[in-house]
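Researcher: For the record, we're logging two predictions in this thread. I'll number them. Prediction 1 follows.
Model: Prediction 1, sequence and structure:
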Amino acid sequence: MSKPRVAFFDTKPYDREYFDRAAAGRVEVNYFKFALKTEVAAVVANAFAVCAFVHDQLDRDCLQTLRDRGVRMVALRCAGFNAVDLDAAREFGITVTRVPAYSPAAVAEHAVAMLLTLVRSTHRAYNRIRDHNFSLAGLVGFDLAGKTVGIIGCGKIGRKAAQIFRGFETRVLAYDPYADAEWAARHEVQLTDLETIWRECDVISLHVPLFPETEYLVRAETIARMKPGVIVINTSRGKLVKTDDLLDGMRSGRIGGVCLDVYEEEDDYFYADHSGTILDDETLALLLTFPNVLVTSHQAFLTREALVQIAETTVDNILAAAEGRPFLPGTALVEF
């Protein structure tokens, strides 16, 4: 059997490095630097599969174009699948797979790292000292020990984050309608409802996928019920947070700090160098002016371990589809 051909979109140097290793001798890859969407889908030629990431937009029109070009599979190299029209994929006979658990530790550790950076002002201290400014004025933080942390979403990443926070001697509350009570008891995590998390938590960390029921989970209505001075962390999906309402919450003092690895309109900015241009997104530009905001460019996944797992799982899924073998557990979203 010939090697399956894959059109790989939104390519970055680290993608190619790790994917080349996983695909060597088994899959033929054509790399494209730009993201996949309807307007560019026609560039795909003689490909069995397309490999897509979080900023690719596989709506109905895009999938129809891919189907007409002979594509039989969409291999997502991420866990989230909100950008794929799964109903259209079923209609067009296109298999869709994902990487559900590349490295829960990578994302959970990044969430905690962002929080520690923000509350201890290590990023500001680093920049000061490079200018030979050794003053400590304005750098007072607080201990995590003894604080109450809320985890919303108890999947693999949320559970790992909760366990890390327990190591800081925090009280951890968690909400998930499908939470594992045995896991929670073993790690001394208290399962509760959202209202309790809004009301009692000093830190709230979001670890849920983006679905219609989770879109804008953090908005004016829920912010108003949060504990004054709360710190909000989002390393999941940008549209879990309504940014304009978040800004209002910071202006009022209801929100004491924000750590964002994702942003609701990130597609036009994240993963690219815009250092020589003015940001057209006024909301993002304003967000970056707040001293109590820390933003990273959707990099929580970016560890060696995660990149290896993403590449290997994606290649395994492509080969399974091409050879008619069962997919790895939890990876198939649409299967033919």
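Researcher: Logged. Prediction 2.
Model: Prediction 2, sequence and structure:
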Amino acid sequence: MSSGHRRLVVIGLDSGSPEYLFAKCRKVMPHLDRLLRSAVRSPLRTTDPPISVPAWPVMFTGVDPGSLGLYGFRHRQDHSYTKTYGPTSTAIPVPTLWQLLSDRGYRLCVIGMPVGYPPPAVNGIYISDFLTPANARDFTYPTSLADEIESKYGPYPLDVTFRAEERDQLYRDIVRMTQVRFAIAEDLYQREAWDVFAIHEIGTDRFHHAYTQYFDPTHAKYQPGNRFEHCLEEYYRVVDQGLGRILTHVDPETTVCLVSDHGSMAMAGCFCINQWLAKKGYLALGPTARPGTPLDAAPVDWSRTQLWGAGGYYARIFFNVKGREPEGIVEPAEVPALRARLIRDLSTLQTPDGSPFPVRVLDPQTAYYTVRGDPPDLMLYFGELAWRSAGTVGHSSDFLFENDTGPDDAVHATEGVFVLANRTIAREVELPTQSIIDVTPTLLSLLGEPLPGHIQGKPMVAVLDAAGLSH
């Protein structure tokens, strides 16, 4: 029996890049190719910072990272030097697309959409995401679904340990995770005529992080003829088979949206932000015997430190402000001058071969509509994001050609993908780059639903036109 709602399927491929999904891998992905031939597609400009969190929550709330209070996988807590916390679904201050539609009577099945732990209570089913704590048993809503899934498929693969030296078993684990997730999705898809069905796959992200050096000739470690040279095509065939498990069951009246949170590209290396800050006199750091020492285990004299940084895909910079940090020494009125001096010093950086080392500086206070939570004071992108930020110290050089937190081949690119297919779109339509914050208002418009007042994004006019809807 029809619910009266328009129906929607959303497929999220973490780290899916236009260059792979729209070009290089399309020839080995017949299900994706068939979808694209009757769809609108475009690159999708991700968030600043270009990380799964905040990118997925921004995509499915229509609200920017500052307003969500999400700046990455870890956040500094209470202006301390060492305390951090991770994002949870209960901390997101506005309703997600899934919650909005659930409250409006839609029947939903959502699998793995970040941030998904603890899984929210929806009108249907919600399976948590890769951020779920290890060994958690409450990763499904309703909770009884976990036992049902695992009795049929074995332990549910929320994620894999991808920063590891071993590669053969890791590849098998990524393939199995992807295959199992889509098998479960097919099973659940056929249980009832869901109004909204959504699935997120993290395997695509883990694959690029672990194997880019083997298939990407631009990677510094690439060697022709290596044993994993064809793993890109092999793995994306697996992904396409997963897509087929869903797409073959989708009726012509259902709209299909395939998206990714950001792209992927070869990692050039890491810049040791705290070592450099110490050399420039910003950070009072004593001798460190062991290379790769985390800053919270290093001999830092906070009473003489002006600012410090944190590692990751970008550098988070924090000023040691008097009256804010426990041992703050920088007067609030001195922060603008200190910030200007830091930016000047960063502008003089060079790579080990003497080339200019571009550093993009973003201020959360001006980058977002508003700022909640525990934001960094500044955000730094090194080498157009090709270089990670290494927060550890004790290295012999400020430039590393390995990740300081474990083997990693890839970093995040600023463009993911957006694909939308419905019965009105009869050919492949290529659009200019769209914005990730506009996905939720676009999907709400396609479903004929009004937009809540808190949403900051706007419906994609070109997409609505192609889909045969006025705007």
